[in-house]
Amino acid sequence: MTARVLPFEPPASREGSFLALELLPGRVQGALIDASGRFRTRRELVFDPSAGREQILAQVDRVALVLARGSVLSGCVVSAGGVLDTVGGRMLQVVDMPSLEGCEIASRLRELVGAPTLLEHRARLQVHGDHYFGAGQGEETFASVATGSTLGVGILYRGTILAPDGGRSGAHMTVARGQLTCSCGKRGCWRTIATTAWLDERAEALGIPAVGLAEWERYAAEDPRTAAVVGEYAENIAVGLANIQQLCTPGLFVLHGEAAQASDGFRARILATLRDLSRTGGETQPRLRTNPIPEDDATLLGGVAYLLHRGILPAS
């Protein structure tokens, strides 16, 4: 078995089930997962992120109830972005879903599904998922990177998750002072230049349809203007990673989302810029690895690892 650094081991019994929920702007997904990481059932619903609290929570409830029905749950975990009170199970600041600010979502779900329920930041759970089930197995230090419509980095440093409880994922670190205004109200956040929204803005400026990175790369083969945007986008992602490399020297960055699904050339541009900006050498020389686990699955699996880490074991 591949060595794991986090201080827990797979339980002897894997018969019980865990409920893992992922709350994103406009979408809630969930899965019933056993302690070995096997997905038993999945469910997903969409909603208007600007809707009222009860409208959004009604969709969360529906997903949770369908998955929990007929199962004996050992535990439940819900992941979200923003600033969270993980001890109290409360969402403090949720820029993209403002009606949920102040929501005590953990206690609500605990009563709904009848199992211990924890709230945790998605970036932290993604690290747990990578380390316990994915491309970070056996690594003592690495960073797990979400790219695409969302952006964030979770760090495992010498076997410890390096982030405050309910903490931030780095998306709002300031990388371009005085530039674009972020949804959080600040200017120049990494998120303003390194997400799909930035690509959509460039598409509008060039008068082309808003498309995903894969389509941008196809266009880039024939259009120098598009190729320049794709190259700039790769460098924008690298800017934030370089700051993290300078501060924490994780060395290994495990990519999820758009950057993981892009071409080797796109990732080579990220890596070259990252190495140029960070200028660290030796064992901490930056390197990239793509994860075979889809981004959202890594977060859901990380929820299971987190529950095991907290000593919540499968019901016999």
UniProtKB/TrEMBL annotation:
Superkingdom of this protein's organism: Bacteria
Membrane-crossing residue ranges in chain numbering: none
Residue ranges of coiled coil: none
UniProt cross-references to Pfam families, sorted A to Z: ROK (PF00480)
InterPro entries attached to this UniProt entry: ATPase_NBD, ROK
PANTHER family the UniProt entry points to: N-ACETYLMANNOSAMINE KINASE (PTHR18964:SF169), ROK (REPRESSOR, ORF, KINASE) FAMILY (PTHR18964)
Family named by the database record: Belongs to the ROK (NagC/XylR) family.
Protein name: ROK family protein
Organism: Brachybacterium kimchii
